[in-house]
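Before surveying the methods themselves, let us examine one representative protein, written as a sequence plus integers encoding its fold.
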Amino acid sequence: MSNEGYHIRIITHRLFIAYFHAMAVQQTIEWLDHHGIPYSDLCLMKEKDQVGADIYVEDRPDAVQNLRNAGLIAICFANSTNVGIGPPRAANWDEVYTLVHQIRPPNG
């Protein structure tokens, strides 16, 4: 997707343990690199709706609802904790890819 012009920004709230911030950032970057996940920006923040993304992909049910309640597009990445969250939903990254292209075609 990044090769198609999409700007991928990873947003995670990993800075909730006092005196653990440096380790949390390092672990996050190492995990992303290890799994070959391309991204342009890494935001470590609680208020994800403040980022201003066109489309969010989120798995936490409360975060999905908060984003949607704020009028934002949030694709629910399906897992056992969010079965009650309605569409748009994706069970895997191929489905995320398809949904993103339907919502915002490349360069659209």
In short: The chain has three helices and five strands. Strands lie at 9-12, 41-44, 56-58, 74-77, 89-90. The radius of gyration is 14 Å. The chain has a mean pLDDT of 91.
